[in-house]
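REQUEST ID: PR-0412
SUBMITTED BY: lab tech R.K.
PRIORITY: routine
TASK: structure prediction, single protein chain
INPUT:
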Amino acid sequence: MSLPNTKSDAASLTADIIYGWVAPGSSVLDLGCGDGQLLQRLATEKQCRVQGIEIDEQAVYQCFARGVSVLHGDIDTGLPDYRDGNFDYVILNESFQQVRRPETVLREALRVGRQVIVAFPNFAHYSARLQIFFGGNTPVTPSLPYEWHDTPNIHFLSISDFERFCSLRGIRIEQAAFVAGNNRVRRFYNLRALTGIFLLSRQHEEATHG
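STATUS: complete
OUTPUT:
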């Protein structure tokens, strides 16, 4: 199946949505920050205090060139150097599905961040369903543009999977947005959206008084 290359459009819109959710002057940790473009934008336009963690060495050099503070490390090993609530926001933009232990990484992100933003490709998009049903092949879509043998993605999840994942673990979904190319998806997003973006926080147990 031939599909239009809308990954760059979707990535741009996803970054815009994440940017819009981050409050000016806040502290931000980006787990798997890539070349640091989003962090640079937050620092220069919203005066955020930013920090990235990235495992790809070349991407780390690009972060340095942008003036972005970044640590070369693997987010799967945890965040032991950061105290609880160290950041206003922790971002996992297209990195959540690439880690070996997504539950551990998300739990750590919610520990060190007051809010967590997660964006990931939706494996249940209709184009993926059609490729599996008619072709019997691992799907290749604009948001999943890799062959099975060279993909960096380890976990293939849908938007509905993630919503259920959060519900079962008491993670509050504060906001959600869904995109396909350069468009927002408002209805039937598990079928039509290429990317899901979620703003999360921990459920706080209400204090009991004697």
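NOTES: The two ends are 64 Å apart (CA to CA).
REVIEWED BY: pending
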